[in-house]
Write the structure tokens for this entry.
Amino acid sequence: MSPELDRIVRAAAGRIIAALTARFRDLDLAEEGFADACEAAARTWPAGEVPADPAAWLYRVATRRALDAVRRRAVHGRLLPDESELEPACEPEWQDEDMLIPDERLRLIFVCCHPAIAPESRAALTLRLVCGLAARDIAASFLISEATLHQRLTRAKRKIGQAGIPFAVPVPAEWPERLEAVLSTLEVAYAKAHADAAGNTLQASFAGDILTLTEALAAMLPDPSEVLAFAALVRFAEARRPARVDRNGMMIPLSEQDPALWDRALIEAGDRYLHRLRNMEITGTRALQAALHGVWCARPSLANPPPWPTILALYDALLRERDDVIVRLNRAVALAEVAGPAIALAELDAIACPRLDLFQPWHAVRADLLNRLGRKAESRAAYARAIEMAEGEAEAAWLRGRMPAD
Amino acid sequence: MQYILLIYEDESIYAPDKTGELLNTVVAGHMALVQELGPKRLGGAGLQNTDTATTIRTAADGSKTMHDGPFAETREQLGGYYLIEAADLDEAIAIARRVPIYREGAVEIRPLLGQDQRKSG
């Protein structure tokens, strides 16, 4: 199938799988029905005409295939849902091309991110079912084998079916815990999308799905302060994507990115969420992180100095909420700019964390501070370690360029 | 006196969804025992495999956390049970959270065998 058709199919996947699940109450059936429809599309679309509304076409075929499967099961004497649930009063497939696919994605997200499902399976399940990502791409972004991923997905789906996890948006009393499970899952998924700085792989392409999902969550939930913070954060982060690597695929750090390249529409959308958040006077980790991104995105141009003092103040606040190595490291970067590299290096070397040596960003930041202090040999050693552990080529290339000469 | 008999076995001997020949054989054995016990048997049921389990743990500070999987034995011992009727896992979880736990402990939720799960799942 052409990349264009691939894109259409993937964009429709979550909505169709959610709608099928709402109707059949069976994730496997929904997924198989959708897969069958995609196969049919791959067979018939390139040969003849692509339907006017490909999503509606896929939904119709998938529904038909799922109904066939249910009937086959009935023949084999298996369980059968109420006929009344399966057969709509009038048959929509046969009405017109632009029939509506009911949007049940919110319910599907809450099923995929149910706290009774193992955390490592939630993100995979969400990316597979809600974002329609191929299993091999999910496996690749989580650095696990496809077989392991399939095992996790199968087990999670079995748990959903057998333990009776409802296909429903939870009652308000359950919001805090349930929403936290959804947001932490989306954070894991977005971290994968964001790690790909060059943005030309499939991992980066589901960043768009996260934007859509956070928008839907912010619009549909009654008390969405945590959602607003996360929705703002992903918009600010995505807005900077065009400026994150140069023409040669080399990473450009935030303070050196040209704000003229940032996506203004996304920044404005992020600002609107942040504004709603501030009206609620919410504090907390997510809100502070969103504010940090917002401060960066408010930089008008490279001619204006980076907002380091504000950044440092926000990291000070964040440190009081969440004292961990990532926050301390980012704070040290800001501290170096405000108070000088020597003080920052002392902070960095004072971080107490048992496996600090395995944490790549620690080496990268340390290498830079050592270089600025003229400790070239130590800096070179730290750079070598950071390059060796760098996750993407964009960052490795940038680090190689910064390493001081002998 | 009333007693509860708790059955422990290696669940991996059955198919993952607890079906198949072996289960039929074991169930036949249970049916025979039920016949024999008559009114002495007040109730009983098979449970689905532990991978359908959800556990709610109460910590010393009273906070409750949920995880996917069975109760992992540490220093607590089985102290009792409820058999409940709930619309779905969410309702079962809500009830499990209300089970009184003095200081620390856990409540494991397991669906019974032989129900129509399709309606709720």
User: Anything to note?
Assistant: Residues 3-94 of chain A form one domain.
